[in-house]
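Hey, weird one. I pasted the ArsR family transcriptional regulator sequence into the form twice and got a warning about non-standard characters only the second time. First submission, copied straight from the form history:
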Amino acid sequence: MDVVNFRILEALQEDARMPFTRIGQELGMSSPAISDRVKKMEDLGVIRGYKAIVDPKALGYQFQAMITLRAFVGKLRPLLDKVPQLREVRNCYRITGTENIIMEVVLEDQGHLERFIDLLIAYGETRTHVVLSQVIAQNPLGRPLAKKD
């Protein structure tokens, strides 16, 4: 990964539909050269895909929350098997510390939140943090600080 690849990644993270000709113009390179570099990054797994960013509120999800869960003995594996089936879960992570899991969820209303927590308490003790606002979203990844000149 050189500086040029990081600049290409910055452009694509800003707008994944940005034409390679425009990226090439900004970097002083041809469109085929940009295309070749992007293809190599895709093949290496640096670029894992391209997705639409959807506003949950536009779909009727009025609540967003972070829920941590401390699994009961013997319940972590069943929970990990269940989570992929829960449509409310946007992201889920195994974590260190007192809790085992933190998940980002979207919910239609307060009743939906209550039903979702009722489902989770069969697996462990939960803590819910309702999101008031999003301070930063999809912050682009750049070159690691250790590699900067």
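That's the output from the first submission. The warning seems to come from a hidden character in my clipboard, not from the data itself. The chain has two domains: 3-51, 56-130.
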